[in-house]
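So, does this match?
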Amino acid sequence: MNPSTIDSIATNSEPGEYVHGIRPLKIGRVSIGFPVVQAALSGYSDWPMRIIARRHGASYSLCEVMLDQFLVSLKDRKKTQHFLYNTPEEQPVAGQLMGAEPEQFALGAQKLVEAGFAVIDINFGCPVRKVLGRCRGGFHLSQPSVALEIVRRTRDRVPSDIPVTIKMRRGIDDTQESRDRFYEILDGAFAYGIDAITVHGRTVEQRYVGPSRWEFLTQVKQHVGPNRIILGSGDLFSAEDCLRMMRQTGIDGVTVARGCIGNPWIFRQARAIFAGRELPPPPSVLEQREVMLEHFRLAEQLYGAERAGVPMRKFGIKYSASHPLGLQVRDEFVRVKDFQGWLAVLDRWYAEDAPGVYPSRSLYEQEQECG
């Protein structure tokens, strides 16, 4: 299936129901459709990545998280314009926001609205130490009153027809106090008019060590009931993982994070098994080459030819996981600085067709994202 066909499926006729009674996703007034979406990924989910995901079946995506104070002071400069860049092809797309002060947070949300994002997402989940040290991200799970003031001010500032959502972890840690604070924020946020909440099954303290507790997602969904939207996150590295999480927990959708970096085909694969079809094979080497060239060209369009090489290097490393000789290819991409270097790797390793491989779960588990 070529990208244009996949994009047509992603944007037009959605089935009324998938396998196991799974329903199309809707967030507020925004119809998403296919309930497997691309998460916000710091340093990754820029416009090129989101467009590639969209063309391969992702119905919705979130931009990489932005700081409220950065947005409030942002000028219309070439070096920073890529942060807010979005286009009609990828809509609906969400802007994700992180910060410490409720008033500044609301002003940052307004900037995302003005930039054309269809949904505003509040990050209460990032476990990175430098973020926590500045009272941002997952730190807010320790202070429900401040978290809910951010929610209230943001919801008041954002126009009523634009959904506001939240990303959370299951708490700071596994103490009862932390669990109580989680539910205080969860219930309070819905009471203030939040349209959906994404829950990552790890604690902030846990970061990315150990398994994501999917059973907690079951408890959350049972707690809020059928009319409130809960999305799940954590340990989604394959299309089968996405279906299994929804079947096991009863949640309304899943957000794929590390599992889709350099692997946009996960959305095509998920669409197939959600429709009751067989899992498609991994993309062949020449299929990978075509998408990787497309991705680099999109990066040049956003960053300019001289600046695209550095941000694309990390994507090449991720794409290599689908190549049958992935470790050797990975070593080549580490040294890429520009399009000529990128093309040299493709000409050496992607010139002849061969079956691809599904990326190894262990490779994903070594990496981290802020979410």
